[in-house]
Amino acid sequence: MPFLFPDHPTIGIFGFGALGRLTARHLMDHFALFVHDINADAVSASALELNLRAADVVTVAQCDIVILAVPVTAMRSVIATISPHVRAGAIILDVGSVKMEPARMMLEGLPDHVDIIGTHPLFGPQSARAGISGLKIAICPVRGRQFRRVGAFLRHVLGLKVFVVTPEAHDREAAVVQGVTHLIAKVLVQMGPLPARMTTASFDLLVQATEMVRYDAPGVFWAIENANPYAGAVREQFFELATGVRDQLADNPCAKEAL
């Protein structure tokens, strides 16, 4: 780590929900962390538990690396708040599930003297319970070249599999990868309680996938299905194909063949 960040930079985290806390847990052994959330009481309790420092907006905004772990709907407001305080040469990155809109907001709202990176950990608190080594993360360079150092740290120190992609390429693939997964999970959760005794291996995997996302904050599902510009078309294709399968079953071609 010293050869990647020789100056021992500070990291500020805005947003201390599930993903903010997960981020802090895996960075706290490598950096001095400062956290801020609109829910000050929750931050103070979690910060004490993790031995982190809760701080005011300006202190967190002036860190060397600033992580925006807030919902997409709150990003523009947070960016406007921190923009006057970010230091020259700082790295500003987000960790959301969509990349095109956050990249646009950061480019429009942050000063030219900071580097901007979009990141998306392709895991969450549930899938990371056994550790994050070997899990995947997408990096979307938006402005500046420090994404290379960030990527090297994630790869060599945290053991993540790093994919460098454009925000557009990320959202196009995520519309299928996340969009369809969350749609299926939403339906299965509403069908519960699901069988747990006489199950097949494939069903167990389906339930496991559902459990990984069923406790996500409502804003995560909204962002995946509405803030991603490609998600709508994928969603409609999914519903159209599902309707086609239902129609095939109603038509029952196998019964006709038997006659």
Summarize the structure in words.
The protein has 259 residues and is of the alpha/beta class. Helices cover 51% and strands 15% of the residues. The protein has an eight-stranded mixed β-sheet, with helices on both faces. Helix 2 links the parallel strand 2 (32-36) and strand 3 (53-54). The longest helix has 25 residues, at 167-191.
SSE layout:
Blueprint: E1 10-14, H1 18-27, E2 32-36, H2 40-50, E3 53-54, H3 57-61, E4 65-68, H4 72-82, E5 91-94, H5 100-109, E6 115-121, E7 136-143, H6 147-156, E8 161-164, H7 167-191, H8 201-213, H9 218-227, H10 231-251, H11 253-258
Parallel strand pairs: 1-2, 1-4, 2-3, 4-5, 5-6, 7-8
Antiparallel strand pairs: 6-7
Helix pairs in contact: 4-5, 7-8, 7-10
